[in-house]
Each structure stands twice: as structure tokens, then as C-alpha cells.
Amino acid sequence: MQQPLVSIIIPVYNSAKFLAAAVSAVQRQTYDNTEIIIIDDASTDNTYELAKTYESETCIVLRQNKAGAATARNLGLKNATGKYVQFLDVDDFLSEEKIEQQVKALDNQESKVAVCYYIEFFNEEELCLGNTSVDQSDFIYSSDSPADFLINLYGGNGKPNFIQTNSWLVPKALIEKVGGWRNYIWLDDDGEFFARVVLASSGVVYVPGVYNYYRRSTSESNLSNSTNKKYIQNALLSIDLKYEYLKQSTCGGNMNKAIATQYLHFAVYTYPKYKLISRMAYRRYKSIGATVAPPKLGGKCVEFTKYAFGWKIARLIRYYLRERST
């Protein structure tokens, strides 16, 4: 019996230095029946030319006018012929059995999605593909309740988390059911997309022993670092949409606590750089009526300041100290 085809979608932009390693990592997968779809987003370096050297019967290379990663992934989906879809960011890696084990896990469970742990790294020097010390069992696990899974992930248990894009393996039929990526959301577009996918599924299957190695560009929050106001506004929109999706699926549990946590953390991390947007998020948090704790902001001195004078003062001090050091 032939293995189901898996489409591996890789959006790229000025990524020549990462592309060879990404393709090599895919080729080392123990699962054989795959197609690679590389979508170049109008790179200005030699990424596209390099990608073309990999073109074959099992590797498609496409190019689009500069339109962003979400549009690139949608173009990949349009050209994908696989039963399952694996998204992969070009600077990340998958453990060699990741796809094989997740395909096996979804056998006879094709209305579910598969997920695995992810391991963060900042550069190749600290990357160890054999590192399996991570434990994310408090938010990555098997569940027959998609809404409860997301509520827990968003902070219903008091500890908000996220699951990086590459950790998932998704039946293409589920994506066709909910639609593609929203190209008007630039920050947390993956959070919004997978909220729809997970809620449309019949459950989540956690696959142990395989990993997604995810490169972090900084230890700071994306909300703290972003210099694009539209990105920040879109991230707030993503929370709004996730809240609406959950309300359509459930009305119980810790939904309000989870979304209140999302809004409060957003308000904290965008302050004081984007005071107006932070204020909007804080108003949304207050309107929900659930009281949650602000996130940890730093070491003992910062945390003392937060509890003694409030998170705004703590954020102001941290923000201006960072500004002076740059």
C-alpha cells in the first residue's frame, strides 16, 4: 500500500544562507513520499536561483511578487497535491522521523491534527539535534476536545504558551475546510490560522519522540521588538479573532480566563512603545471580567518593581534601560 503524499511548504525571502540546510533536512526525513514546494517572495539575493537548483519531480519552485509569508504559504497550498501538509520555516529543522511518525499517528484519525514538541535555539553553535530534554506536556498533549486544547494553550491554566508552525502536521482536507492563511495578519498569523484548523478538527494527536527545532531571533517578545505598528495592530486582531472562534465553539471552561490572559499579556508587552494599542488591549481585558496575573518581566529587581508599583512602571524602566543600551 502506497504511503500518503505529504506536501512540505517552505516560504523563503532572502534566505540563501539557510536554504541548503533546510532542503537537506527535508531530504533526510525517513518518510519517503513527499513533495517540496518552495515559494520565493521576490528575494533580492540569490535565493530564487539557488532554489531552482533543487527543482525536480519532487521539488516545485514558485515565485511571487513581494506579498508576505502568508500569501506564499497559500500559493504553496494551491499547488500542493499531498494528503497532508507540513509547513516549514526555512531557518528551522525537523527531527528525521517527524513526518513519518506523525503520518502513522493520523492513520485512521484523518479528522485530527498531529503535533510534537519544539526546541528553541538561537544559532547553530548551540543547536543539538539530539537534544530531547524539553518537556511541554502542560500544553502539548493528545486531546479529543479541540476547544479545551486551545483554551489551555492560550492561558486557561494560568500559563499562556504557543506552538510553533512546524510542529504541526495537518490533513489538507482540514485546511480546505477552513480556508488558507489570512494575508492581512502579519504577526501571529500562525496562531490565527491554527486556531481555525484545530477547531475544525476532531482532536489533537501528540506524537512523542520527534521534534521541531525552531530558531529564535531574540529572547525578547515579538511584541516588544516589533518596529511596525501595523504588525502590532494585526496581532491584536488575531486575539480578537481567536476569541470569536472559541465563542462559536464553546461557552464554558476557562475560555474567558484564557483570552483575558492573551489581552493582558499583549497590553503589557506593547507598553510603553505602543501606548494606544496597549490601552485598547487592556480595555478588552477588563471587559472580559476575568482577573489574571501579568507576565513575569525580568529578574528580582524588575519583579519587585512590578509588584510594588505596577507593571507599567516596571515596563517603563525596562524599556528605557534597553533604549539606552542600544
Give a written overview of the molecule:
The protein has 326 residues and is of the alpha/beta class. The chain has 2 domains: 210 residues, Spore Coat Polysaccharide Biosynthesis Protein SpsA, Chain A; 104 residues, no CATH class. It is built from 13 helices and 8 strands. It has an 8-stranded mixed sheet with strand order 3-2-1-4-7-6-8-5. Strand 1, helix 1 and strand 2 form a beta-alpha-beta unit. Helix 5 runs parallel beside helix 10, helix 9 runs antiparallel to helix 10 and helix 10 packs antiparallel against helix 11. The chain starts with 5 loop residues before the first strand and ends with a helix.
What would a concise description of this structure say?
This protein is α/β, with parallel strands linked by helices. It contains 13 helices and eight strands.
